[in-house]
Amino acid sequence: MAQTSGTAAGDVVRRILHVSDAMRHFMEADLAELGLTPAVARALHELDPDRPLPARDLAERLGCDPSNITLLVDKLERLDLVRRQVDPADRRLRTLVVSDEGRRVRDRVSRIVSDSRLLAPLTEDELATLRTLMWKVSDGGCPLEPPLT
Prior knowledge:
CATH class of the domain at 15-118: Mainly Alpha
CATH topology of the domain at 15-118: Arc Repressor Mutant, subunit A
Mean pLDDT: 88
Number of helices: 6
Order of helices and strands: HHEHHEEHH
Domain HTH marR-type: 9-139
GO molecular function: DNA-binding transcription factor activity
GO biological process, one term: response to stress
Shape: elongated
Low-confidence stretches: none
InterPro entries: HTH_MarR-typ, MarR/SlyA-like, WH-like_DNA-bd_sf, WH_DNA-bd_sf
Strand content: 5-15%
CATH architecture of the domain at 15-118: Orthogonal Bundle
Radius of gyration: 19 Å
Protein name: MarR family transcriptional regulator
Number of strands: 3
């Protein structure tokens, strides 16, 4: 493995943090226009509109304690993005169903999360190179899904 210069590595880390902060700023501002926090948006994004999901499974996907998921689901429900429904296969179980409004908002959240305005100046080749390098860095020990906070 090649040794990198401390100065070059430090500059790259600072640039990654700067870009990450800018992306987070844009994303949070866009989500706020929808009346969503990043946590609520991530929860909605994790739900499949065509497959009801038990709240405990959503908690697992989000990497949070099942006891904390109730408040998040309450917010989703209050915003009319999901509804709780009794599972016909197991009446003791309640699943989360994405509402029509939830589908619409989820589509907008997907577009916000995929927003590439900061990457617009890059050519297709530059974008492909950046993608390869970012995958290489993340494969070096970066968590698969950092929490969206």
